[in-house]
């Protein structure tokens, strides 16, 4: 049982997959939903401070490197574009809600990793970034849990 929870925890830490993959995996493995949501949310949130404080610096460092430069430049441009889109749609005052919804609505390319990177480019502040991303992760977990459990019932599993 512990191995299954750890598996869901680590899935939730992986970029692109994040909690959007961890919660459905936990539901499919037959784990209880609420403890799984908590464990997946913690796994998804664990990298947030590291991303906020260091990802931008690492990406800027790697931009001019021979083999990784193009990819790192792409990541910086994606982070800046994402941040500017959030800012343009929400304004400075609505940025918290916009970030929360960006992270919380489980679509490809959104999530805690991308949201935190965008917030770091906007110099949003670690406290408000962490709060908005945390609430967004919980929202995504609720949505994914509902969809996962509904899918299991629809397909008779």
Keywords:
single chain, 157 residues, mainly alpha, 8 helices, 78% helix
Short summary of the structure?
Helix content is 78%, strand content 0%. With 157 residues, the chain is an all-alpha fold.
Explain what this protein looks like in three dimensions:
The chain contains 8 helices and no strands. It is mainly α. It has one domain (2-154). Helix 6 packs parallel to helix 8 (126-154). The longest helix has 29 residues, at 126-154. The two termini are 19 Å apart. The model has no long low-confidence stretch (mean pLDDT 89).
Number of helices: 8
**How can the largest sheet be summarized?**
none
Structural class: mainly alpha
Fraction in helix: over 70%
Low-confidence stretches: none
In whole angstroms, the N-to-C terminal distance is: 19 Å
Beta-strand fraction estimate: under 5%
- Total strands: the figure is 0
Overall morphology:
globular
SSE layout and pairing:
Blueprint: H1 2-13, H2 18-28, H3 33-45, H4 48-62, H5 69-90, H6 95-104, H7 112-121, H8 126-154
Helix pairs in contact: 1-2, 1-3, 2-3, 2-8, 3-8, 4-5, 4-7, 5-6, 5-7, 6-7, 6-8, 7-8
């Amino acid at each position: 049982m512990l191995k299954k929870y750890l598996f869901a925890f680590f899935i939730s830490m992986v970029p692109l997959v994040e909690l959007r993959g961890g919660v459905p995996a936990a539901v499919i493995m037959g784990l209880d939903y609420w403890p799984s949501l908590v464990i997946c949310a913690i796994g998804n949130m664990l990298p947030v401070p590291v991303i906020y404080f260091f990802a931008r610096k690492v990406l800027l460092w790697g931009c001019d490197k021979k083999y990784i430069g193009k990819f790192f430049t792409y990541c910086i441009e994606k982070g800046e574009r994402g941040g500017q889109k959030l800012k343009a749609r929400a304004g400075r005052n609505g940025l918290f809600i916009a970030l929360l919804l960006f992270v919380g609505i489980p679509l490809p390319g959104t999530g805690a990793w991308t949201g935190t990177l965008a917030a770091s480019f906007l110099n949003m502040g670690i406290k408000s970034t962490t709060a908005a991303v945390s609430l967004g992760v919980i929202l995504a977990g609720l949505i994914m849990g509902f969809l996962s459990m509904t899918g299991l019932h629809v397909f008779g599993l």
